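Sample A.
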Amino acid sequence: MIYAIPILIVVLAVVFISLSVKIIPQQKVGVVERLGKFNHLLTPGINILIPIIDHVRTYHDLRVQQANVPPQTVITKDNVQVKIDTIIFYQVTGPEQATYGISDYVYGVRNITTATMRQIIGKMELDETLSGREKISTDIRVALDEATEKWGVRIERVEVIDIQPPSDIQDAMDKQMKAERSKRAMVLEAEAAKQDMILRAEGNKQSQILKAEGEKEARIRQAEGVRQAKELEALGEAKAIQSIADAEKLRIQLLREAGLDEQVLTYRALEALGEVANGAANKVFIPTKAVETLGSIGAIGEMLKGSK
């Protein structure tokens, strides 16, 4: 009995400490009720409670959570049943409202998601539903935000994971997709053939242009060579004529310096004509102006004889 009292005191102290001291991890809070009424929140770290009077109603995780909504079969505007699978990302922002605003906010979020999904899909046709995942997600999120705001829950994101139409419609869609792919392949093949023909024609055009340009350049160069050759030939002929004229001018000048006048030169020319005419087959044509000088031939001859 002497040792039982201290042991009892130690046990009571341990129980008292365990009931009065609460250690809360990061990103979690506890809702504390005092005598059945909300009193305060337990924050991360060490918290002191009054045993028996204070009671922790529940704990909330403040991190972003996810809730999978079971696949729902809904009917589209054109009376086609589709199965939609969604997932919701949410976060508790008001632990007090999440505790006392609704009994189970996760269950409420799922129910609102299902109801909203049926309303949204009922206004959309099948093709619009299959291609409108983003619109469906946005509409569901807006509807959830309006409902969960008073629950202390914020909807972070709503994702439509899968939309499954009936098997017969899926088969028809697969056939349509294959036909569409075949059509696109044929169009691409035709476009490729068209581009190939265009490129070939463009290549032939460029080749002909380059060939014509080359022939034009060759003709221009050939003509330029002919022109230069003619210019050089004409220049040579001009120089030759100039040389002959200069020689003739020098000869005449030398004859004049030797004391021979025009009459003597005429006489010498007639003598040469006479020698030429001595041939049996030679005919000599004398210009009219030369006849005028014939009258003085005798006098010229006499003068020449006297000089000898």
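Sample B, a different protein:
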Amino acid sequence: MAGKREVESDRLAELAGEASAEAALAAAAAAPELEASLAVPTDLTAAAFFDVDNTMMMGASIFHFARGLAARKYFSTSDLAGFVWQQLKFRVGGREDPSSVKASREQALSFVAGRSVGELVSLGEEIYDELMADRIWKGTQALAQMHLDAGQRVWLVTATPVELAQIIARRLGLTGALGTVSESADGIYTGRLVGDLLHGKAKAQAVRSLAAKEGLDLRRCTAYSDSSNDVPMLSVVGTAVAVNPDSQLREISRRKGWEIRDFRTGRKAAKIGVPSVLGVGALAGAVAATMAWRRRVR
């Protein structure tokens, strides 16, 4: 009797094993179908456009890049002081001055003239890890991910050099980036721009051109920025969102009924920049002190 029960038990275990194996095979076969049914289809007519500086990232990406290049002896301390001064004027003023932005970018281009495109892209990857990754606004990144999760494409639109913008977009898992294009010949930067700086009205035109190329319905698209200089871009889409806005954009957004998202702590608008200004000011003071010391030594 005991031997019979053992045989029956073994048979039941065998049948259970066969059933488990069949269930596993069935589950494996169904997995692709289940995954496909859960995947969000790409929304081909809607997209989101994000400014970078102070919208997606704390501070100016070109300034962080310049700091990284300065640390690698690509230019002098006095050159870095120029970047600091441009940033200080921006932070205190609460908004970008187009002439200052152009001067800052052209200054940056002069530093890379004669350098290899591949070399600067490789350095951009390193500098992103060192100085930019921790400065991404988590709230803004979450907004971008929201659009991606909805099956929409997401582009960065910035005056920053396009190679740097593409690195940021790739690291964040975004669709791509539009940025200022620097001229190169045989893989070497010439120090000149191709076309205009991607700033102000040029951003709006770039978004229109991309929409035409990609078949986007701008009425279904969303744009995000911190600066009143980007009102042209914000105005060409169906939904405009002010992120960490300067005082003028905050006022415009309230008047137009645009949504406002502020991921900074403490007081809002221009006053929020005070801690950052102190940080930039301290750096400027250190640079100035170093320059004065060197003059005394000479």
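Observation for Sample B: The beta strands are 47-50, 153-161, 176-180, 182-185, 188-193, 222-225, 239-243, 259-261.
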